[in-house]
């Protein structure tokens, strides 16, 4: 991050933490229990002193102290909305603009501007997603058609009649609309004005990206967001990693210590947004990711925290092994087994099922081990070639006996 923006973020964080401590009882208790004063948080790096609050813990705190668990700003003059997100979690939203500003910036980055007519297909019911995208689109200058999902033939008509230029929502639903248009005998590229799409809420695999961008000629941007925290990151220029959005604090931390992890080391995604109505400081999302750059501003999601296993002091996630596997077509399946035979040192064995029985096993074992080490930062002790690995078998298995 440029130095000027970094300093600005530090100043905004310091101001926000003081406000949250003074106005949200739960934040004050978290700080007091940890022996941390608001003035101790002068920059992003200082957040390591504050404990992470897991989503599950947030739900428990709401049950114990309904409806908001002490996180709502007690001095908020008026709430505009109360949402209900999976958990279940109640979320108060008032006059604050923080989440909307971030969303508007990301929409502008995706190419949305004044004069665009955008179809917003995320739900407007109970969850905040639809209204957040609505406000972000308006902030970027676009006119919004609030459609939600369903009614595919009607939505195809909307796209056509209103000359809609932008789409916001899940990639799978846009493909459903395109296929419906084709079923109706309409040539999508020729008949429709749609040229840009912002995707969120579900994975956006390369195969689908190739269809949208290569076949249909759309400009697309994939966004990582959560219900409680809004827009957090979006495709970088390479489309292989996510760039942290301006105006939010995203850390990847060791789930046990709360300290920032290093490059290529899996950490839990922990977020602080400047939402003064609902000030969540260091909320753990449960997602695991790895930093992909030295500036700690880009990352790649690798899965959920509960699936990670710590080996020789390093968290490893099944999706890291799968990432390495994707470069080796000669391998059909792989399974990592962690043991501790001497009760001192972890041993990591890779069991490999070949897709090509004629492959050079010695060379493959060496190259695959190196690829896994580069991704996971843990050396492989042994590669074992086996006849079969069950299709539903776990990618990482912990067989250590803690005696």
Taking the alpha carbons of the first and last residues, their distance comes to 46 Å
Tally of domains: 3
Largest sheet: 12 strands, mixed
Strand content: 25-35%
Word description of this protein:
The chain is an alpha/beta fold. The protein has three domains: 3-95 and 236-307, Rossmann fold; 99-223, 3-Layer(aba) Sandwich (Rossmann fold), CATH 3.40.50; 309-398, GMP Synthetase, Chain A, domain 3 (2-Layer Sandwich), CATH 3.30.300.30. The chain contains eleven helices and 20 strands. The strands form four sheets. Strands 1, 4, 5, 6, 7, 8, 9, 10, 11, 12, 13 and 14 form a twelve-stranded mixed sheet that branches. Strands 19-18-17-20 form a four-stranded mixed sheet, covered by helices on one side. The protein has a two-stranded antiparallel ribbon with strand order 2-3. Helix 1 (3-23) packs across helix 2 and helix 4 crosses helix 5 (129-139). It starts with a helix and ends in a 5-residue tail after the last strand.
Quick gist of this model?
It contains eleven helices and 20 strands. It is α/β, with parallel strands linked by helices and 403 residues long. Strands 1, 4, 5, 6, 7, 8, 9, 10, 11, 12, 13 and 14 form a twelve-stranded mixed β-sheet that branches.
